[in-house]
Design brief:
- This protein is an alpha+beta fold.
- It folds into 2 domains: 226 residues, Amidase signature (AS) enzymes (Alpha-Beta Complex); 192 residues, Amidase signature (AS) enzymes, CATH 3.90.1300.10.
- The protein is 34% helix and 16% strand.
- It has 12 helices and 15 strands.
- The chain has an 8-stranded mixed beta sheet with strand order 6-8-7-14-15-11-9-10, sandwiched between helices.
- A hairpin with a 3-residue loop joins strand 4 and strand 5.
- Helix 5 runs parallel beside helix 6, helix 7 packs antiparallel against helix 12 and helix 9 crosses helix 11.
């Protein structure tokens, strides 16, 4: 089992209570606010609070029943600070944007509100959404609810911490370097990195800009169970994606035990391999087939180059050089070749299973990401301990669902379920089946 911190109902269960009239929207909102006020002092996850407007929105719903297409009617939730909500600040954790107030809701926020959700506020992020911990000059540091001395992950770390501790039943984040998957893994919740283009990121833009969606960057849901994750995904999809929902005993899984750039720590490997054994015992076909995989070292190098250009938004890189149009088109070609390789792999396998990171939640560390070293069983590792496993799905634009599978001592451990492009609903469905297999 993985460590759980709350018995609070998830999104579907809480919305059902509201729909049955067992709880009014205002009572649900007040209860969530009370949990935040009781729990968040030690965690510091919900850093932008909009309690008065949330109560007003709930009062407006009291006495009503859910309308058509409102499965989240009256449901209180929060969202990552980088998403615009009209009237609230969007700073991306940057001091120079602390005073920026959004004037329009992000597309995802609009869709979730249309489904009946009530937003209580926004959750913490690292500066520029570019770290696996959440510590910024505007809102301070977020602590992992399983261990306050450790990171909850990043950049959607506040989102995962609010979920894991039971403050809210649903969240939404973004991912370019594991920013949904790492918090899910570190904090013991569920998260889905969408296929690039499956869900609109409009309104999750750099503060005070209204530009295009960033290359490689996606938005996606976080929840405490697979059914909630599937609902949040369905409510926000841009495309009517298929769902095949094959049972485990009809599926072929390729298991990637280690990335060639960084081996998985035993504390993470053991619960993942226990899950692999359980999947095999349930009839799933499990293979380790390195020859089927693309050149992961080369793919990671290309990913890091594209990530650097995308995050810098065209500014000079660490070497002081500007990327040319030719550099960019060469990376697009490399990405396309990689996507073709993965498409060929998925003709033989339904899903790829891998660690979300080589390590469990790490101790708070103010060292810059470029200089940070993570202690391993045999030496140390740098950013590749996280980014090598995140980049598996990010550079080829594949969907990946992380579910909790076990524990490294008192810390949660997750596993990635990676599928073909636009097989988002299948990834969530298979992760849900695996979760039911492991945890009932």
């Amino acid at each position: 089992m993985y460590p759980k911190l709350t018995q609070e109902p998830g999104a579907i269960a809480l919305a059902a209570q509201i729909a049955r009239g067992e709880l009014s929207p205002l009572e649900a909102v007040d209860a969530a606010i009370a949990r935040i006020e009781a729990l968040d002092g030690a965690i510091n996850a919900v850093v932008v609070r909009d309690f008065d407007r949330a109560r007003d929105a709930a009062r407006a719903l009291d006495g009503q029943r859910p309308g058509q297409g409102q499965p989240l009617f009256g449901l209180p939730m929060t969202i990552k600070e980088s998403f615009n909500i009209a009237g609230l600040p969007t700073s991306w954790g940057l001091a120079e944007h602390k005073g920026y107030i959004a004037c329009e809701d992000a597309v995802v926020v609009k869709r979730l509100k249309r489904a009946g959700a009530i937003f209580l506020g926004k959750t913490n992020v690292p500066p520029f959404l570019s770290d696996w911990q959440c510590d910024n000059p505007n809102y301070g540091r977020t602590n992992n609810p399983h261990d306050a001395a450790r990171s909850p992950g990043g950049s959607s770390g506040g989102a995962a911490a609010a979920l894991a501790s039971g403050m809210v039943p649903a969240e939404y984040g973004s991912d370019i370097g594991g920013s949904i998957r790492i918090p899910a893994h570190f904090s013991g919740v569920w998260g889905h990195k969408t296929t690039w283009g499956a869900v609109s990121g409009d309104g999750q833009n750099f503060p005070e800009t209204d530009g295009h969606e960033i290359a490689l960057g996606v938005v996606g849901p976080l929840a405490r169970n697979g059914a909630d994750l599937a609902l949040l995904l369905d409510l926000t999809l841009d495309l009517p994606l298929p769902r095949h929902d094959k049972p485990i005993d009809q599926c072929r899984f390729l298991y990637l035990g280690d990335h060639p750039l960084c081996a998985v720590e035993g504390a993470v490997r053991d619960p993942i391999e226990a899950a692999i054994v359980a999947i095999g015992a349930a009839g799933g076909t499990i293979k380790q087939d390195p020859a089927a995989l693309p050149d992961l070292v080369r793919a990671h190098g290309d990913y890091m180059r594209m990530l650097g250009i995308a995050m810098a938004m065209g500014a000079p890189g660490p070497d002081g050089k500007l990327a040319s149009a030719a550099d960019w088109f060469a990376l697009l070609d490399a990405q396309t070749r990689l996507q073709r390789h993965w498409a060929a792999l998925f003709e033989h396998y339904d899903f790829v299973l891998a660690a979300p990171a080589a390590i469990p939640a790490f101790a708070h560390d103010l060292t810059s990401m470029q200089q940070r070293r993570f202690p391993l069983e045999h030496g140390t590792a740098g950013a590749e301990a996280v980014l090598a496993y995140a980049g598996l799905a990010t550079f080829p634009a594949l969907p990946s669902t992380v579910l909790p599978v076990g524990a490294a001592g008192h810390l949660p451990v997750g596993m990635q379920v990676i599928g073909p492009r636009f097989a988002d609903r299948d990834c969530v469905a298979m992760a849900t089946r695996i979760g039911q297999l492991l945890h009932g």
